[in-house]
Amino acid sequence: MDKFVSVYEAKTELSSLLRLVEDGQRVVITKRGKPVADLVPHVQKVRPKFGASSLGLTQVEMDELTKLLDEPLEFGEADWY
Fold first, then answer.
1. pTM of the complete model beyond 0.90
2. DSSP state string for 11-80
3. Which DSSP letter does residue 81 get?
4. Which residue from 6, 13, 27, 32 has the fewest beta carbons nearer than 10 Å?
5. How high is the pLDDT of residue 66?
6. Neighbours of 62 (CB within 10 A)
């Protein structure tokens, strides 16, 4: 179940709210009664590790691919459909 708190409560009770989030609870921060932000547990991004040779790539190609995978894709930026 989500816990709703005001901005003031979030500011004054941040440590205890973070403990709730660490335990898996979601905290919704409200401003004048309207939700404006969520405190949620961090999700570690895990990418499978492949060696360049196992993919048939040179190390330079693998480094370029890694850079591309780490960059966020902006809406409308993809040219493939």
1. no
2. HHTHHHHHHHHHTT--EEEEETTEEEEEE------------TGGGT--HHHHHHHHHHHHSPPPTT----
3. -
4. 32
5. 80
6. 16
Q: Domain limits of the chain?
A: 3-39, 43-71
What string of pLDDT tens digits covers the 81 residues of the chain?
899 999 999 999 999 999 999 999 999 999 999 999 999 998 877 766 666 666 777 888 878 878 887 777 666 555 554
- Residue 37 corresponds to which amino acid? A
Say how many C-beta atoms besides its own lie within 10 A of residue 25's C-beta. Answer: 15
CB atoms within 10 A of CB 3: 14
**CA–CA separation, 2 and 28 (whole Å):** 7
CB 16 within 8 A of CB 41: no
Could you tell me the fold of the domain covering 3-39? YefM-like fold (3.40.1620)
